[in-house]
Design brief:
1 helix, elongated, alpha+beta
């Protein structure tokens, strides 16, 4: 009669290896078929803005006319498409692209693939407000966020 463990190879270690490899393969296939349940926190995004020499501010920023202002969302998670709308406070949209020393125009970004939108503000005689509305779309869900930039003729 053979001695246990010396003459008969143990099947326990081989079975554990078989089940580990099988489970790992099955789990990998499941992620490929179902997809990765991404850690997306859709709904926590905030639109804000900033001027040269200032930091990003959520929801509203303040600056001096004749300077660029950049709108940008923060707290993004994952991949988005963007739909930007920039308007004066009276509702008039800003759609023209800066092609020279113009003001009240889009200087960069503001596209469906751009996470920023920079405009050149008008020299202000009176306070002027620019409103950015951004529709974010991710995995078939959409959310709209908004921020404003208050432009003054004098530094704040």
């Amino acid at each position: 009669m053979p001695k246990r463990g010396s003459d008969i190879p143990s099947m326990g270690a081989e079975m554990r290896k078989f089940w580990t490899v099988s489970f790992t393969t099955l789990l990998t296939l499941a992620f490929l078929v179902v997809g990765n349940p991404a850690a997306q926190a859709f709904g926590g995004e905030v639109l804000g803005c900033g001027y040269p020499g200032s930091s990003w501010s959520p929801n509203q920023c303040y600056g001096v006319g004749g300077n660029p202002v950049q709108f940008a969302p923060h707290y993004l998670s994952g991949t988005y498409s963007y739909q930007w709308t920039i308007k004066y406070s009276n509702g008039t949209p800003i759609t023209n692209t800066c092609t020279g020393p113009y003001q009240g125009c889009i200087s960069s970004g503001c596209t469906s693939t751009s996470s920023t939108c920079t405009i050149m503000t008008l020299d202000a005689i009176h306070d002027k407000t620019y409103i950015a509305t951004l529709q974010l779309t991710q995995a078939g869900q959409s959310r709209t966020i908004q921020a404003s930039a208050l432009v003054s003729p004098q530094p704040f």
